[in-house]
Amino acid sequence: xxxxxxxxxxxxxxxxxxxxxxxxxxxxxxxxxxxxxxxxxxxxxxxxxxxxxxxxxxxxxxxxxxxxxxxxxxxxxxxxxxxxxxxxxxxxxxxxxxxxxxxxxxxxxxxxxxxxxxxxxxxxxxxxxxxxxxxxxxxxxxxxxxxxxxxxxxxxxxxxxxxxxxxxxxxxxxxxxxxxxxxxxxxxxxxxxxxxxxxxxxxxxxxxxxxxxxxxxxxxxxxxxxxxxxxxxxxxxxxxxxxxxxxxxxxxxxxxxxxxxxxxxxxxxxxxxxxxxxxxxxxxxxxxxxxxxxxxxxxxxxxxxxxxxxxxxxxxxxxxxxxxxxxxxxxxxxxxxxxxxxxxxxxxxxxxxxxxxxxxxxxxxxxxxxxxxxxxxxxxxxxxxxxxxxxxxxxxxxxxxxxxxxxxxxxxxxxxxxxxxxxxx
Length: 425
What we know:
Elements: H1 12-26, H2 30-59, H3 63-69, H4 73-81, H5 84-109, H6 112-118, H7 123-165, E1 177-181, E2 184-191, E3 197-204, E4 210-223, E5 229-242, E6 248-259, H8 263-266, H9 279-283, H10 296-325, H11 336-361, H12 367-424
Antiparallel strand pairs: 1-2, 2-3, 3-4, 4-5, 5-6
């Protein structure tokens, strides 16, 4: 009688198969890549569209600089482009929630999630692509909030301050009355290719009780290096009217220099906003930056908000996953769970704003900023993982009972065969 063929326990190929399966299980599967690709493309498209919409609405505020200050299109685009990183940092957690909710809701409507569950994928396995996208969004938010946004916003504020207070005189347009300030207006008939101004009219009302009208055939803008613009006039006249006596004084000149800066704004100091400060400056602020002792809480809140903001991207994604993956299956779908997810995210945003405002007044409550950002993560992870653990435990108990029942039946059959053997003998 031939002996049964057995596997060699020392075969290296047989020993490496479980290890290969375990390593293959850790890699993203084809389903993970399929879902993640849909999530990533949708996130880029949604974020770009919303940022463009917000950029258009916010740039309307800067149209005044184009109309009244004569900014060129290149300067306008550069100025408004510095605001885009701030828009992305605010929009990214919200678009992450919207994209996860939309893609997984579509997968559920197309019965793809049902097929994946039938293939044996757990809740955690189904959530893996969304968690990867949320981690990527959280990393982007961290980089934006800690480094890019403060630098871009500081450059925007400095550029805007310079345009409004110092550079307006260098943006003179031909045939346009340019209001340098409320008390100074300049008109230029034409400008040569070498920068020479032709047909200059200056209305100067900066001196009290005296209004001066200056006419010149030509002139040239001069940068003094201190930020105060100055124009050098050639072959002109200066007419002044004394408001007290009504006397007209006329002075002709061959060359004369006029300072075009506003005396009030020339000495104006720009105070930095908390948004343009680094994390180190917020945690250890310069005493000169704190004009009011109560403002120190605002510095701490801004620092903690930047560091905790990336957690909101992960929390909002988990809220979307819970609204889609939890609950019973319905053939025609439901709008109740997505609606609950949307209301939850809106409530979390309102809670974050309220907690930040409260912590700014009472610094002892600063941990609430982190609690408001991290609590959704803990609650939603529990909602996703606990039902899966319970179902696995129930399946393990059913399998154990089945094995015990089969073992009992096999043992009963062997005892019955043992009783019948002596009789036959």
